[in-house]
Structures are given as C-alpha cells and as structure tokens.
Amino acid sequence: MSQTPAASLQDIVGHAKEYGFVFPSSEIYDGLQAVYDYGQNGVELKNNLKAAWWKAMTQLHDNIVGIDAAIFMHPLTWKASGHVDGFNDPMIDNKDSKKRYRADQLLEGKAEQYEAEGQPEKAQALLAEMGRLLSAEDLNGVRELIIAENIKCPVSGTTNWTEVRQFNLMFSTQVGSVAEESNLIYLRPETAQGIFVNFLNVQKSGRMKVPFGIAQIGKAFRNEIVARQFTFRMREFEQMEMQFFIRPGTEMEWYEKWKEARMKFHKAIGLPAEKLKFHDHEKLAHYANAAVDIEFQFPFGFREMEGIHSRTDFDLRNHQELSKKKQQYFDSDLDENGKPYGNYIPYVLETSVGADRLFLAAFCNAYTVETVGEGEAQKERTYLKLHPALAPFKAAVLPLVKKDGLAEKAEGIANALKSSFRTVYDDGAAIGKRYTRQDLIGTPFCIAVDYQTMEDDTVTIRHRDSMEQERVAISELKEKIGYQVAIERILEAI
Predict the structure, then answer these.
(1) How far apart are CA 203 and CA 196, in angstroms?
(2) Sorted alphabetically, which keywords does the UniProt record give (predicted)?
(3) Which of 137, 167, 197 is the last residue of a domain?
(4) Annotation-wise, does 181 bind a ligand?
(5) Which of 65, 328, 390, 392 would disulfide-bridge 41, Cβ 3.0–4.6 Å?
C-alpha cells in the first residue's frame, strides 16, 4: 500500500462538489464569486468542527461562557473599533491585464519564493520592509518595493502597476422602511465586537471574575476585492472567536498559554504537526501589542487558519469613550502590597479561527489517495481520513444481499444505532461499491450484515483507514463505535 503525492486544490474542489460537501452558491445562475454553499455532507462536517471547538472552549473551561450576538450592530460600534477609518486592504492594479491584487499578498508571494529557493534571510528582510512601509502607511513605498522586486502580474507578465490604494472592506446597507429616513449600518466584518459590547452584561449576569472568556460562533462579512482559493477567502464566512478578559500586565503570560492550547486543539482534531506552524505578524493590527497566526499547509502553501492576538484594552476603552458608558471591572483580589487591584478596564487576549478555513484544512488533510493491492490487482483507492468524531456519518449498515431477511435485519440495526450517532443504511449495488461510497465521504465504520448474522447476531465491522475487518456482536456495536466517534476523544487529547 503506497500513498500518491499531495492532492491539488482542483482535486479538493472537485471531490467536495461531487460528494456533497461544498457547492458554488447559486450555481444554476453561474454562481457568485467567493460565495459557497455547504452540501449535505459538508454541513455535517462543519457542524462537527464547530461543536468540537465550542465544547473545547466552554465545556473544558469553567471560566468561559458563550453568547450569540446579532449581526446588525449600532454603526458607532464600528467607529469605536476602528473599522470605519482603518479596515482597509492595500490594492494595486496591473494596467495591462486590468487585474487587481492585494499589494501585501504579492510581496508575501515573493517572500515564499525566496523561502523555496533557500533564501530565508532575503524572505524575512522583504517581509520586514513590507511591514515597516504598511505601518507607516507609505503606499508609494509599497509600490516601489513591488517594482524593485520585479514582481510581475501572473496574467499579463508585466510590471505595469498603478498606484497602491486603500479599499474599505465593510459591506454597508440601510435600516428603516423609507430610504430618506434610513440610517447607514454595516454587516459586521468580525464577531468580536458583539462580545465587547456585551462584556458587562455577561460579567454581571454571570458573576464572572477576571480572568474569564466569552466565546461566539457567527457569520461575518467582508467585501474582499481578491477572493480566491475556494473556501479559504470568502465574502460571507463564519468565525469562531473567544475573547479572554484579563488583568493588565498578565497578557503575555496568557498569550503564551493560549498559543499552546490552540495548537493542541488543531492536533487533536487530526491535523499533523508537520502541517502546522506559528507565524508572528510583521505588521501588528491597530489594536494589538502581540499577534501570531497558526498556519496550515494547504495545497497552495502555508496560510493563516487562526489568529491569536493580545488586543490590550483598545476595544473596551474605545467603546467606553464613544458610548460614555464605563467598561470597567472591580478586582477585589489583592496585589503584592496586599491592596485590591480595584477598578480597571480589562485587557483582552483573543483567539479567532475561521470555521470555513478549519473545514478546508480538515478536508485537505483528510483527502487521501493510495495504491492498494499488487500486480494486476493493483488499483487506486480514494478516501477521506477524517477524525471519526468529525465524519458526517459515523457508521453505515450494509446487508450483503437484499434477500433472505438480511435487509430487514440491517435496517433494524441501523435504526437502533441512530439515536446514538449518525448512521446510514445502504443496500444499493455490490457491497464493494458501497464500501467505496462510504470511503469517499469519510465514514469510519461499515457494518456488514451477512448470513452468519442471522445465525449468531454478529456482524463484520470494516475499518475505513486500514480496511481491516473484525467480527463483533450486535449488542456491542453501540458502545464500541460510540466510544470512538464521540467528541470526547478530541477533548481528551487537548
């Protein structure tokens, strides 16, 4: 048995559509760029990932609770957060191809090229210079750096670039029944602000003591000018964020703790260590004093999957100033001098992972093509090597044939298991083809019902990854499979 080279993004996209994981949105109308729908299997995988994240945050930590804030928020929220004035991407156009690119991504691509050529020092120097220019808002300097590095448009092959300009990424809309009376509001570009404006509501109603966290899963919207790479960068996406409120001065300690905790989570759901790495930010966001990405090796290279940021007291302080409502916490714990810490605006440590990017990482990592058999019997086998707790279906029950009572027996087994975990019954085509169907959607266990089942109430369990089979009593199925497909297996590994 041997594994073939890594799959291309085209392979991933094709498999995702063919087997009900991800479809282009509004495809009958030729689709909408950078918008996707999750199919019947995709929504199950995504929901399982969200459930694992939610439980890892709220179930494993006594001091983290969840909320679900509205998408629409008062427009001053985005003034206080800095998004109205500073939520921009530096864009540059090629005059010959008429294509638009993010200037920072062009430079990052050049740095990746240097890395691949064995010139890491040159790559780091380029990223450092880019960070300096962007921090200084020197857009002309960014353009000159692109030209100096001889970065060409992938379409035209020329360096005929326009000036670099900033584009705000927020979608705006109107609220109100009459246009003249309406007010401008925004679709939220992040879920974090819904947590910040509810900081005191949660703290007081839950009698929470610092340090404590608030978790949320929700949709966010960004008018990405350059949206690409399947579900990696979309205009409508889902975030899983946790804001951890801490005493000022302790942020670096918590920063390191959450870096370690989040990396553990990604390994626990089955992402291999060699495909994960930390990447410190060259240019810090306006709210941060430290920031790092957890990157995953997608088919198009290492890219950000999760961000961990020390946001200081930027958000709560700005909301306090603009709303004129105090966002302070009274800390009765004693300092080194034996006095209460008293009132302060908490600092915040943020973990923010894209549910869609996590889905794509899990899917890319799971997609497996290997050669099985020998000689003339050799053939390729494709399957999704998903963690059993994440698979859309946990088990498939397959009668060997549809006659002699085997089908009825198998249906009875499937119905008995459905209350414990997602189970499918399938009696169409030869059993080998049915095994293949389940492999292609990542079902970890196939239960074959044969003539021996009718005699001794045992069945054969086929394991997806190894294709090994074992004989098990029907009475043991619920416990045996249920143990291996439970989210608890992920939580235990964190």
Answers:
(1) 11
(2) Aminoacyl-tRNA synthetase, ATP-binding, Cytoplasm, Ligase, Nucleotide-binding, Protein biosynthesis
(3) 167
(4) no
(5) 392
Residues 121 and 183 in one domain: no
Whether residues 41 and 112 share a domain: the answer is no
Distance CA 259, CA 102 (A): 28
Q: Report the CATH number that the domain containing residue 471 is assigned in CATH.
A: 3.40.50.800
Tens of pLDDT along 369-413? 998 877 777 889 999 999 999 999 999 999 999 899 999 999 999
Q: Does 240 carry a binding-site annotation?
A: yes
* Residue 213 falls inside a structural domain: yes
Q: Is 202 annotated as a binding residue?
A: no
pLDDT digits (tens, 9 = 90+) for 445-477: 999 999 999 999 999 999 999 999 999 999 999
Q: Is residue 376 part of a domain?
A: no
Q: Is 88 assigned to a binding site?
A: no
Residue 345: its pLDDT value, please? 96
Q: How many CA atoms lie within 13 A of 16 on its CB side?
A: 28
Taking only the tens place, the pLDDT of each residue in 251-262 is 999 999 999 999
Whether 458 has a binding-site annotation, put simply, is no
> Strand 100-102's sheet: what is its strand order?
100-102, 88-93, 165-168
CATH number of the domain enclosing 133: 3.30.40.230
Q: Is 436 annotated in some ligand binding site?
A: no
pLDDT in tens, 296-328: 999 988 999 999 999 999 999 999 999 999 999
Looking at residue 5, its pLDDT comes to 55
Query: Binding site annotation covers 207?
Result: no
Q: Are residues 211 and 293 in the same domain?
A: yes
Residue 111 placed within a domain: yes
Residue-range definition of the domain harbouring residue 441: 387-492
Q: Are residues 106 and 226 in the same domain?
A: no
350 annotated among ligand-binding-site residues: yes
Domain count, the chain: 3
| 355 annotated as a binding-site residue | yes
Inter-residue contact 296 to 354 (CB < 8 Å): no
Residues 390 and 270: beta-carbon distance below 8 Å: yes
Neighbours of 132 (CB within 10 A): 14
